[in-house]
Design a protein that fits this description.
Number of domains: 2
CATH superfamily of the largest domain: Fumarylacetoacetase-like, C-terminal domain
Number of strands: 19
Distance between the termini: 43 Å
Radius of gyration: 18 Å
Helix content: 10-25%
Oligomer: single chain
């Protein structure tokens, strides 16, 4: 199934919806006590998901998706974990070494953003803001000390993430959280696709188009550590709670490494996408 947090004209209130055949069915309207947000649906487990599935199959036509806006694919994750240097081409182009264990950092909740949002930042803070298309993994069942073989059974669904990064700050500080956690710098969505719709997360086409130019074009099979390995590794030290968002790293093609360098400019539009999951667009403004 495909879900999104949608908004109606004149309202910023997000409403969880099933997306099917180009239409949005608001989940709260399907039956009494239905979940209002994705986190509530995840917490209800397989039984609640199946009830939503059956109710959506019986429902009448919904509202055209084209008439709606979006909120972040997930609104209140327990934590946003990001993986760095998980594609060899990206590590090489940044001049950074892929370590023997994953590079892990945390993104701040204020950084979450939505499809078709506009992000803005002061020119005085950074003029080296870069894009990074990433596969987002949402945990469905608590994961603690899971093996790689069992790890994917703990995944609820997948989404698209743009891990936007102020490169000059990234290279000037010892940690990577601040440079990637400006307001709106972690747009997600617009859709979350349930895990049963993605039989192999290592066989997905991932790409970025900036101002009409394709700059990333790769496959998730190029990950240094696949999704199952990442979940297993992270679960050794801490329980991964339902709703946790893991951003699994970006392929080669970042703007920082190009000659000349390519960064997000004032009035740039950047779209990152993963075939079978969705396309996520962000508009940019630089404030003087």
């Amino acid at each position: 199934m495909r879900f999104a947090h949608v908004t109606r004209a004149g309202s910023d209130e997000p409403r969880l919806a099933v997306i099917q055949d180009g239409e949005a069915l608001v989940v709260a309207d399907l039956f009494e006590g239905a979940p209002r947000f994705l986190e509530d649906l995840i917490a209800g487990g397989d039984e609640l998901l199946e009830r939503v599935r059956e109710a959506a199959a019986r429902a009448e036509a919904g509202q055209p998706v084209a008439d709606l806006g979006f909120a972040s694919a997930i609104l209140r994750p327990p934590v946003i974990l990001a993986i760095g240097l998980n594609y060899a081409a990206h590590s090489s182009e940044l001049g950074l070494k892929t370590d023997s264990t994953p590079t892990v950092f945390v993104l701040w909740p204020n950084s979450l953003g939505a499809h078709d949002d506009t992000i803005a930042w002061p020119r005085s803070l950074s003029e080296s803001v870069d894009y990074e298309a990433e596969l987002g993994v949402i945990i469905g069942r608590p994961a603690k000390d899971v093996t790689p073989e069992a790890a994917l059974a703990h995944v609820w669904g997948y989404t698209v993430v743009n891990d936007i990064t102020a490169r000059d700050i990234q290279y000037s500080e010892a940690q990577w959280s601040r440079c990637k956690s400006f307001d709106g710098f972690t747009p997600t969505g617009p859709y979350v696709v349930t895990a049963d719709e993605v039989p192999d997360p290592q066989n997905l086409h991932i790409w970025t188009v900036l101002d009409g130019r394709t700059l990333q074009d790769a496959s998730t099979d190029q990950m240094v550590r696949p999704v199952a390995t990442l979940i297993s590794h992270l679960s050794r030290s801490a329980t991964l709670l339902p709703g946790t968002l893991i951003s699994t790293g970006s392929p080669g093609g970042a703007g920082y490494s190009r000659d000349p360098q390519v960064f997000l400019r004032d009035r740039s539009t950047v779209t990152v996408g993963i075939d079978g999951i969705g396309e996520l667009t962000t508009h940019c403004r630089i404030l003087d």
